[in-house]
Design a protein that fits this description.
By secondary structure, the protein is an all-alpha fold. It has 15 helices and no strands. The mean pLDDT is 97.
Length: 257
């Protein structure tokens, strides 16, 4: 999951200052963690300790205010009994990466991804986005090659992964839907040569840069067997003690260092 967190942090400075190139500094004094990281760690916390997702999402949102949460999510999180709000947004996909690392059977990954999504994102596209990202991570860490991962995602979720990243980059703009973020994030992974290249490619298309890089980063970590040490070191410097602690505990327990 640290691959997803790193993608979020690296992309944080480009969300509102889009770039269309892979040639950019990975880190500066301006990088920060967003709601993508906060809720990713919340999912990991729930998996580690058996908490309910709705409860922990509200708790983490309260503990980490002002991290770029969507308006509908904030309205939901501000009450203790609000129902899912039928979202098809990419929030379900950006927080799901721990699921892909924590379960040993694909059917369990798909079911748990559904559970993480449906407390807020109970629209079919919101659930599908979370399941697709979690499945891609599971297949990647299980040793599947890119063509098989691509075929599974296309066949199971009907995402079009035929467009090249160069083509996407030429027209892509800000899109917070799962339909407009998840295929693009997976394509960046498919065209990458290593973890860093994957995140750079994800950010280079523009749009919701931190979330797309978060999606891509989780898959890339699983496929390439980890995250470069200098990136992990920088991430730990940016996260606080609580977020670092849950991330480290999860990474040790599920051997996704």
């Amino acid at each position: 999951m640290i691959g997803a967190i790193a993608g979020d942090i690296i992309g944080s400075v480009y969300e509102w200052n889009n770039i269309k190139t892979t040639d950019f500094p990975l880190f500066s004094s301006e990088n920060f963690f967003t709601d993508d990281t906060v809720l990713t760690v919340a999912v990991a916390d729930c998996i580690l300790h058996g908490h309910g997702y709705a409860q922990k999402f509200r708790e983490y949102t309260r503990d980490y205010p002002g991290r770029g949460y969507g308006g509908s999510f904030l309205s939901w999180a501000s009450t203790t009994d609000s129902m899912p709000y039928n979202s098809w947004g990419n929030g379900s996909a950006m927080r799901v990466s721990p699921v892909g690392f924590a379960f040993e059977k694909l059917r369990d990954v798909l079911e748990e991804a559904r559970r993480t999504a449906e407390v807020t994102h109970n629209h079919p596209e919101g659930i599908k986005g979370a399941q697709a990202v979690a499945a891609a991570i599971f297949l990647a860490r299980s040793g599947e090659k890119k063509p098989k991962i691509k075929a599974y995602i296309e066949g199971t979720f009907q995402y079009d992964l035929s467009r090249s990243l160069d083509s996407i980059r030429s027209y892509y703009t800000f899109d917070v839907s799962c339909q407009g973020s998840v295929p693009q994030g997976i394509t960046a992974f498919l065209e990458s040569s290593d973890y860093e290249d994957a995140v750079r490619k994800a950010i280079s298309i523009g749009g919701d840069s931190d979330t797309i890089a978060c999606i891509t980063g989780g898959i890339a970590q699983a496929f390439y067997g980890g995250v470069p040490d200098f990136i992990k070191k920088k991430v730990t410097e940016i996260l606080d003690e609580k977020l670092n602690g849950i991330t480290a505990d999860f990474s040790r327990q599920f051997q996704c260092l």
